Amino acid sequence: MRQLLGLTLVLGVVCALPAADWPQFLGPTRDAHSTETGLLRAFSEKGPPVLWEMEVGEGYSSPVIAGDRLLVLHRVGNEDLLDCVEAATGKKRWTFRVATSYRDPLGKGDGPRSTPVIDGKAVYCLCADGRLFCIDLVTGKEVWKRALHDDYAVPGSFFGVGTSPLIEGDLLVVNVGARGAGIVALNKMSGKEVWKATDDGASYASPVTAALGGKRQLVFFTRQGLVILDPRDGTERHRQRWRARINASVNAASPVVVGEEIFLSACYDTGAIVLKVTRDKLQEVWSNDESLSCHFSTSVHHNGFLYGFDGRQEQGTHFRCVEWKTGKVRWSKDGFGCGSLVLADNQLIVLSEEGELVLVELSEKGYRETARAAVLKGTCRAHLALANGRLYARSGTRLVCWDFKKK
């Protein structure tokens, strides 16, 4: 059985979706990198040309794209909606609806935070109340569902569920956050449990996969810190505590893996750390609370440098370039607030929390923006998506598609 599962995992890697798609949180390689070229290098103060836009409900879930389909998870009234539209035109294909009574205990919004993941002919979405659905991508019909918070007796959290599920071969893996079921792997076809591991609470960071020591590993930034697991059976390989000393805190930025090293970052007097993975242990490369302490935005790496947002959202942030090997700040730009960013065509595409779209040169030598436009009103915390020359972004009321291909 273990050999069969291992073979399936390898096949799952080989049969990944095309790079032109944006099928999951942070894109095809789950690191906010895009291989698309020939993109806009500038635009007017009105922003790039708008191809279409549509009303959406509240939530921080990002749009995902596979082929000619775009999906967005949002809340309208007392329903969570998964809308499937044509990626090029916005024309509605289908809507999956499920009633919800979720109320955020701290009043930070009642919509979904987790981003769906598309895999083949299925899409998986995780709602703020812990209900997990597998939906047929073609028809919009429910295939299976799980009530994870009920099934695993998950304790309450500050803002509901915010982590995004991860597909690894035949597995759908989630940081559930229960005792004895901190991380759970389900069969993606049936929803049945394959394995469960750890007592780690759920964070708002989303897991990634990486080849560490020549083997596929699951890399989680849980409420307690870094956990690295074997995807075959959930065996724990490495662990590093990295969280705030106070309870009123979150880990929300996803881990960034470069080679055999992992970058973790959090606010609340915690800071950042780079760890090198060896066979027997984790070795600290550097750590501090002065370089790049990320509240919820995930940083991106390029050629030995990290680009990201330093500081808590409520107190204002700095957009920075930091050396991966040392943590040295190469440049810092104020005035962004938090935001999301995509690295594509040798530039950074940035959407600020206030709805400004900005193009920034990809350079460690200094900050230089080449375009800026106010494109969305309201708070923008959902991550950007880029697929087939089109850029997508949403607020709590609008989803916009721009033509981002250079003419």
Any overview of this molecule?
This protein has a domain at 60-165: Beta Barrel (Thrombin, subunit H), CATH 2.40.10.480. It starts with a helix and ends with a strand. It has 407 residues and is mostly beta strands. It has helices at residues 2-14, 148-151, and strands at residues 50-55, 64-66, 69-76, 79-86, 92-99, 117-119, 122-126, 131-136, 142-147, 166-168, 171-174, 183-187, 193-197, 208-212, 215-221, 225-229, 236-241, 256-258, 261-266, 271-277, 282-288, 300-302, 305-310, 318-323, 329-334, 339-344, 347-352, 356-361, 369-374, 385-387, 390-394, 398-403. A 4-stranded antiparallel beta sheet has the order 1-32-31-30, with no helix packed on it. The longest helix is centred in the N-terminal third of the chain and has 13 residues, at 2-14.
Short description:
The chain is mainly β. Helices cover 4% and strands 43% of the residues.
Order of neighbouring strands in the sheet with most strands: 1-32-31-30
Compute the separation of the termini in Å: 52 Å
Query: Architecture of the domain at 60-165 in CATH?
Result: Beta Barrel
DSSP strand tally? 32
Could you list the spans in which at least 5 consecutive residues all have pLDDT below 50?
A: 1-18
Tally of helical segments:
2
Helix content bin: under 10%
Estimated share of beta-strand residues: 35-45%
Mean pLDDT: 93
